[in-house]
Specification:
single chain, 21 helices, mainly alpha, 495 residues
């Protein structure tokens, strides 16, 4: 192992281990500190998150439509490494992960029950719920992922640079700067944000899988069962990561996509079809028409808690995920044009997410509008999102079948997030090696599983998510400079 290789790897392991030990053994102080810092950032820099996330959309669209849109991410004669369906399946499974299933019903219900500035449980609240769910899961997160993904894919495939986020900044700080302190700092922060983000998602996924098994089969919701679930799924995601992208990761991502599409079709058939179609159409129009004012919505002289706890929290969470998802998307995008990359990474998955929330969000809200579930019952569902999916599905025909498919989908989304996360961690700690050693994959796969178990024991999933968001705050500026660096590099292209 090269010395420079080992430094980032060792520092990352020490930082991750230290934070994990703090979260497990000193949970109260860890929770207090992480919440205080997050509150400070949300209150004082919420405006910055709102502006930056809108800027990422404008930048992505502008680059795609510019003369640089036809530039290949690789040599001019390069072809896409993966078929479009598999490419989309892998980036979608990585970018949204288990959160799509976890929040697909519960988030719209949360907004429906407790909307901002209006009475809950009304038709107006239903429109608000769908609109805000679209905002949080639509174009914004994917444009955010595209910033790191596009810049990194350009430099690693067009300029033959290592698959490290630090290499993006060579046009600004030079090769010496990239290999020095600042480059290593960027790569260490990226590794920590990836570990924390993936481990948090794994923990949430395990809770929902266990809740589904309990609701459907009476299997108890206990720590022992959750550890068994982690152990079984860890074997699968480590195997798929070790097998590589072409075999394990691609295979499971393809299966995940087809299961997700199948579940959406089935839910649409048995669900309130006209309401789903009306919701999709109406909310899409509102979303596109109000995207700028909604993106910049904040309050100076009245209660701003909703914006801080939902919008700013989501924007900071997506930025925390940007290093992980961006690196993986870049890795699988060789041979695509910049325009094709933006369309595939921003537009297509955003539409898929919007369609998902139109179907599953309507499924839950419809029960409240029609009076089949009382508002307080819906509030309980929203407060325990890991069971909400199954409670709502049981109210519709084929509820058991739908729940079983959803349970399988939870597992495949769980695995697609974990195996891509394991692959990315191995790349970032192996000096950007596009095919990192299997030993690193096994190590990082085990580290993620052990951390998830430890945090479940300590009940520290939420604080870890909070601290990962705090640690990712510098990525706001890293991503802005990534845009500057990419534009500077593109100006040297003859187009």
């Amino acid at each position: 192992m090269k010395k420079k290789n080992g430094l980032v790897f060792i520092i990352s392991l020490i930082l991750t281990g230290t934070i994990a030990l703090w979260a497990v053994f000193l949970k109260d102080s860890f929770t207090t500190v992480s919440n205080v810092v997050l509150d400070f950032i949300s209150i004082n820099f919420g405006w910055l998150y709102l502006i930056v996330m809108l800027f990422f959309i404008v930048f992505a669209v502008a680059i795609a439509l510019s003369k640089y849109g036809k530039i290949k991410l690789g040599p001019d004669d390069s072809k896409p490494e993966y078929k479009t369906v598999s490419w989309f399946a892998m980036l979608f499974g990585c970018g949204m992960g288990v959160g799509l299933v976890f929040w697909g019903i519960s988030e719209p219900i949360s907004h429906f029950v407790n909307p901002m500035g209006m009475e809950g449980g009304t038709a107006e609240a239903a429109e608000f719920a769908m609109r805000e769910s679209y905002m949080h899961r639509g174009i914004h997160p994917w444009a955010n992922y595209a910033i790191i993904g596009l810049a990194l894919a350009y430099f690693q495939f067009r300029k033959n640079k290592p698959g490290l986020i630090s290499t993006i900044f060579e046009p600004l700080i030079g090769e010496k700067g990239v290999k020095g302190f600042w480059g290593k700092l960027i790569d260490v922060l990226a590794i920590f944000a990836t570990v924390a983000g993936v481990v948090t998602s794994l923990g949430l996924g395990v809770l929902q899988i266990n809740s589904g098994l309990n609701y459907l089969f009476g299997i108890p919701t206990t720590l022992v069962i959750q550890i068994i679930i982690i152990a079984v799924i860890s074997v699968i995601y480590i195997w798929s990561a070790v097998s590589g992208i072409d075999k394990g990761i691609k295979l499971i991502s393809d299966a995940n996509l087809y299961i997700a599409i199948g579940l959406m079709i089935l839910v649409f058939i048995v669900g309130p079809k006209i309401e789903i179609l009306n919701n999709f159409t109406n909310t899409l129009g509102q979303y596109l028409g109000d995207i700028v004012p909604e993106s910049l919505m904040t309050k100076s002289y009245s209660d701003n808690s909703w914006v801080e706890s939902w919008r700013v929290f989501y924007w900071s969470w997506w930025i925390a995920w940007a290093p992980f998802v961006g690196v993986f998307i870049a890795r699988i995008s060789r041979g695509r044009t910049i325009r094709e990359f933006i369309a595939g990474v921003v537009i297509a998955p955003a539409l898929g997410s919007l369609l998902w929330f139109a179907i599953f969000g309507t499924l839950g809200i419809n029960l409240g509008i029609n009076g089949e579930l009382a508002l307080d019952t819906l509030a309980e569902i929203a407060s325990v999102p890991e069971t909400g999916l199954f409670v709502v599905m049981q109210k519709y025909p084929l509820g058991m079948v739908l729940s079983l498919i959803a349970l399988v989908l939870l597992c495949t989304f769980f695995i697609t997030s974990a195996n891509s996360g394991t692959f990315v961690l191995s790349m970032l700690s192996s000096e950007g090696d596009l095919n990192p050693p299997n030993g690193k994959k096994v190590l990082w796969g085990v580290v993620q599983a052990v951390l998830a178990v430890g945090l479940l024991i300590a009940g520290g999933l939420e604080p870890l998510q909070t601290i990962s968001i705090v640690a990712a705050f510098p990525f706001i500026f890293i991503m802005i400079f990534a845009c500057v660096s990419l534009v500077k590099a593109l100006k040297s292209e003859k187009v």
